Request: fold
Amino acid sequence: MKRTIVHADLNHCYAQIEEMKYPALRNVPMAVGGHEESRHGIILAKNDKAKEYGIKTAETLRDAYRKCPELLIIHPNYGDYMYYTEKVKDIYREYSDRVESFGLDEAWIDLTHTTSLFGDPLLTARTMQERVYNELGLSVSMGISFNKVFAKLGSDLDKRKGFTVISEDNFREVTEDLSVDSLIFIGGATTRKLGELGITTIGELRNADPVLLKRRFGKNGLLIWHYACGHEDSPVKRCGESRERKSISHGITAVRDLKNYEDLHMILIVLCEAIAAKLREEELEGQVVSLYLRDNELYACSMQKKISHPTDLAEEIVKNCELLLKQRYPATCFPEKPLRSVSVGVSSLHKKDDLYLCDLCGVEEKRKRENVLESTMEAIRDHYGPEKICRLAVMMDRKLTDFHPKEDHLIHPESWL
Reply:
């Protein structure tokens, strides 16, 4: 049986939900954005009026105001966004038991086996699209194809309540001249590197030598070639089926530039404590620590290391971040330029094994005590609030460290790979 996979994407989701709540916003240039005074000042979503001024998602509020001085900024209300996007997916779930979320505003729906219940899958997809609009006042773009990659591409081709069908018969024609970055997970860096090989379109990628691509990009080179050729056949997950977590990370754009190692150390403690708490909450440990830094001229660098044993301890994650810094910046443990943002991640995750190895130096006993300490601190925060207990080091500058990664809902699509 030929597969029918739908990718549904709520158009400019956050801004559209705000317009649905307050219809007058449709008549003015409006965007959902952060707080410039706390330097979380980027555009998260914009309406059509703002788009006419060339305002783009992820640009700074400062740049957006230059383009449109009268731009109205609405601060995000993630509770509402989570509520309404779940209502949208509830409609999808009435037609299929395979609805796989891709962030808040996107989902794949498998309609392959729904014909006996609802008839033609294309008509079913149209019905879902119209129901979302009529019942919730939200427009959804849909791509319908024989796999998840081309379904996603189809929904991106028409963002105004579009309905694009990419079939096994027409996918070559439809995708031939599209830019390679139209394919999911081909970002700017990969696009530039493909361009160096003379590959700028999906058709050129499809006709490229897969051996060359693998040599240049590793296994991901072969993966994107298969995507371009229409070979992707991963299943749409069943409702409630959780995605295997590959990593846990947190990041922050600091309220001021970080000028020295002491500033950075305070930020690392807050981020690593939140990561460790999440690891323990999900009964996971990780063995690869990653650190991403961006300076005040927006130059970015990243580094990572595999550690000797899996961990869910903030103290160990912080220490390994510091080792990465020492290796990269041996003289100062700090870059030459002040830092604007910092992110920490832990990957290579697996379920925690509660069996501690016996050792003569008492290392595992010390790790047990640290685990009890961190778990107790987190329990106090959960019960009384995050400000009720903290390490002395972060109190050196409370304005700098007064953020709570576990509670600040910056929501992005999950990694699919």
Notes: Residues 363-384 form the longest helix (22 residues). Residues 293 and 299 are 8 Å apart (CA to CA). The domain at 247-401 is CATH 3.30.1490.100 (Dna Ligase; domain 1).
